Amino acid sequence: MNITNSWKTGERPTLSFELYPARTEKAAQNLEKAIDNLANLEPDFVSVTFGAGGSTREGSRQLLEKLKLDMGLQVIAYFACFGLNPEDIVEVLDGYKDLGIETILAVRGDTPHDESFVPHPESLTHASDLVTFIKSRYDFCIGVAGYPEGHIDSPNLEKDIEYLKYKLDQGAEYIITNYFYDNNFFFDFVERVRKAGIDAPIIAGVMPIFSVKMMERLATLCGATITTEIRTGIASLAPDDKEGLLSFGIDYAYRQCAGLLQAGVPGLHIYTMDRSKSAVGIISKLRNEGLL
Ligand SMILES: Cc1cc2nc3c(=O)[nH]c(=O)nc-3n(C[C@H](O)[C@H](O)[C@H](O)COP(=O)(O)OP(=O)(O)OC[C@H]3O[C@@H](n4cnc5c(N)ncnc54)[C@H](O)[C@@H]3O)c2cc1C
């Protein structure tokens, strides 16, 4: 299936979940449960990340295989090219093609945590190079990442949109955004993207709050602004009130999703961090309210 078809027909917004391959036995058990719960929500597709420097190469493939072949779910395979030898890129993508995968999200990736990792001299520099590379060899429908607040290394928002447009010009067909805690960042982004002449569907990435530590760490890494409302809401909770925090995160993300749906987004993409409780809470509430 080419997922962009459902965005083109625009009958209803899509629902999707991002997953990553488990790194430990315990994480694998938790992921199994999470997948079952998420599958019960009948998403339009699930996506699987690809660890920087190919670190989850096997795990990503296995997870895609399980989701697609064992569970019959539609999948999007992410692929991050940072530091990889073009031959490795071909090997991974050939494997995805053999699995029957039709849709890819092409990202650059970042420097892997593994300090011994040495980027291959012929590795690709930007996600746009990866889009060109894939487009010249495969029939995949390709998507790319977009950043409502701008990519953290970007000199300014104008340049960011210029490079985003270049990725689309190379043949990408859809955009999934990084998460944001204030919908206005998304709405402004969409406006700037459209002004630049990009008409591809823009799927909104939503990250529920799972823990304060994780929220702070990820926001620092990707430059997401933590709103005053979040800071005030968290400050009103006892520091060890994990359930209270989760409920606050579900309610906050629910309200974000409701606002996005009311504004007519073509799709909601939930960053699950391989957990299901928040996604189930958010989506159930949206469906009970008739919003999704
Ligand atoms: C939806 C989504 C999914 C992701 N999935 C993964 C994943 O599975 N694995 C993973 O490792 N990471 C993933 N990431 C993170 C991503 O790899 C990082 O954000 C990375 O830093 C940038 O990737 P990109 O594809 O946006 O890169 P690019 O589009 O290459 O942009 C990177 C930076 O370079 C600039 N730039 C782009 N083109 C040019 C150019 N021609 N000349 C000069 N500057 C340029 C951009 O403005 C930006 O600042 C994901 C991010 C998102 C939003």
Walk me through what this model shows.
There is one protein chain. 46% of the residues lie in helices and 15% in strands. It is α/β, with parallel strands linked by helices and 292 residues long. An eight-stranded parallel barrel has the order 1-2-3-4-5-6-7-8, surrounded by four helices. The mean pLDDT is 96. The protein binds flavin-adenine dinucleotide.
Give a short overview.
The protein is an alpha/beta fold and 292 residues long. Helix content is 46%, strand content 15%.
What is the strand and helix layout of this fold?
Blueprint: H1 4-9, E1 14-19, H2 25-39, E2 45-48, H3 57-70, E3 75-80, H4 86-98, E4 103-107, H5 127-135, E5 141-146, H6 157-169, E6 174-179, H7 183-195, E7 202-206, H8 212-222, H9 228-235, H10 242-262, E8 267-271, H11 277-288
Parallel strand pairs: 1-2, 1-8, 2-3, 3-4, 4-5, 5-6, 6-7, 7-8
The protein binds flavin-adenine dinucleotide.
